[in-house]
Amino acid sequence: MASLSIQTFSQTETFDIATYTPPKDFKKDSKAAVVNYTNVNQATGSICVIALFASTVSTGDAKKDFKKAWQELAVTPYKAEANPKTEMQTTTDGWEVVTAAAPIKLDGAELYVILTVASGFGKTMSIRTSLNDEAYTAQIDAMFASMELDKTKTSSMSNNNSTTTSITGTIGKFGLMNYTSPAGWSHQSFPDGVVFKPLDIPPGEYLSIQIMQPLNFSGSMEQALQQSFDEAAAMYNGTKMNYAGSGASYQKTEAKKSFQGWEYIRANGGIRIGTGDYPPEYGLDMFVTKINNRFERMAILKSRTINRSCSMSAFYADERQQYKTAIDNFLFSLQFTDGPQPLITQSKSLEGGGIKAVWRGISMNVSTATTSQPIGLGYNVFTPIFLSNGQAYFGPKFYSEGLNDVDTRVLAELYRRDWGTYTFSTGRGVLKMPYGDIPLRMEGNTLIITANHTDHRFYQLPSVDGAKFNGTYTMSEAYGKIPAITFSADGRFSDNGAIRVLYHEYNECINPALAPGSGAYEVKDYTITFSYSDGRKIKIAFLGTEYDINNQSPSMLRMSNNEDPMTRQ
């Protein structure tokens, strides 16, 4: 079944580097990176799916190419055994072909998955067959016997179908769109789209961003969103789900204008992909922008997982904070050759004189009525931020990861009520928030913000850049133990449960600090960054409340945007 020969048949088709004769009576479904051929026999219950995946750059080692493909195409989606028995052969044309098969269970049904990976001439291509009846063997063998692979294309890059990985993010272009790929994500370009996937996603989970072809359409944003969602669901061969009993396929936001100057609308819904009565559920989000007379579309496909070893709650892959941040930054950094100019530039620094700084004080907060605040009014600690680009934050909760390497323009898109702009000159100014204008003035070193016709006094927080700590600190009991962390003045740490608490993630399955560890720490822009020796990187807000940067071993340290206390031992 694995042989790839050099024979020519009539009625051939071509996908990527492969030319072949598909099996008769198989339904074809083409996508940007894969073409599927499916046959279902309703009378016998037999099913066979042959999937051809677009070629990628080879490692130069056929066995390594196979191992990588098996992990991505068999282990991750189907939980197939990790190390199957393989067969290897070399064709007369010089292709090295590795094949393996393994039994799997999909929604209670027993199937076999067979993966054939051909490597050579700088590239590798994978073909996956899933079936539950060996009666399909003759048709599959005939397709493989007809298959030719084009070795003249010396790399998949020359086929405009390249996979690249960047630590810092890659600048790219698709049509009239300019983008920066998320750092640490693979970046694969095709003639009809671009696909991005995180390289460090845990086994069994799936997450991708896909740039789709633009839509030339005269309808409204809402109509373009509906058509785009339907196209994306079909592209993934998914069945649309009913969103929370609403009768609609998704929940949508109102159309808005971004800081980049273009209009956009978002939706989040769900689809089921696969066979059986209850195929696996995936989240499907759409992000649609309007540029002149066309709509640019991005689809986010994400697995939905329940892992009862760590939580009873289901979660989507993009609920991991690092992925959510990467997706939002990607979407809101999009620019277009024929599009508008950004309305707000990115702030480069908190410093700049005047009121450009982080402040702390008490102000009245209007919120939903609670037992403690029956009319929804109360006083809260506020941490206003005034930035050099004219942005201002005036809300009751500091950002959980601090401000280091944060594009505050994106935060303002996500949390519009708490963000605005300001003007300030000769000791006075105006804070313009979505709900109204708020007067500002300076009295000595104190900033007076007159909210709700009442003066509220704020003091400037000193910089904590470069702070170093020395000693072991503990917290109140949590998860059946006393959380602790040890800092050293040379910038090292050893964590035993403290960061897990400081991270404040209710679903333990997606808490990156669940396991203890050690590494290096750095404090900058009210963020303490923990860089673990195992590759994890976790950011937590550190405002420096009651902290003297000249004292490396205070009796108490407060960290996180909740300012959780930790006591020195």
Structural class, please? mainly beta
Q: What is the subunit organization of this protein? A: single chain
Count, helices: 6
**How many domains in all?**
4
Strand content: 35-45%
The major pleated sheet works out as: 12 strands, antiparallel
Strands, count: 42
Overall geometry comes to: globular
Low-confidence stretches: 1-10, 154-161, 372-377
CATH fold-level label of the largest domain: Protein Transport Mog1p, Chain A
Instruction: Report the top-level CATH class of the largest domain.
Output: Alpha Beta
Instruction: Report the helical percentage.
Output: 10-25%
Distance between the termini: 66 Å
What is the average per-residue confidence, as pLDDT, rounded to a whole number?
A: 89
CATH superfamily of the largest domain: Mog1/PsbP, alpha/beta/alpha sandwich
Rg, rounded, reads 28 Å
Q: What CATH architecture of the largest domain would you give?
A: 3-Layer(aba) Sandwich
Structure description:
The model is unreliable at 1-10, 154-161 and 372-377 (pLDDT under 50). The radius of gyration is 28 Å and the shape is globular. It has 569 residues and is mainly β. Strand 21 and strand 22 (281-291) form a beta hairpin. It contains six helices and 42 strands. The strands form six sheets. Strands 11, 14, 15, 16, 17, 18, 19, 20, 21, 22, 23 and 24 form a twelve-stranded antiparallel β-sheet that branches. A nine-stranded antiparallel β-sheet has the order 27-26-34-33-32-31-30-29-28. The chain has an eight-stranded antiparallel β-sheet with strand order 40-39-38-37-36-35-42-41. The N and C termini lie far apart (66 Å). Helix content is 12%, strand content 42%. The chain folds into four domains: 13-157, Mog1/PsbP, alpha/beta/alpha sandwich (Protein Transport Mog1p, Chain A, 3-Layer(aba) Sandwich); 163-336, Protein Transport Mog1p, Chain A, CATH 3.40.1000; 359-460, no CATH class; 471-568, Beta Barrel (Lipocalin). The longest helix is centred in the first third of the chain and has 17 residues, at 62-78.
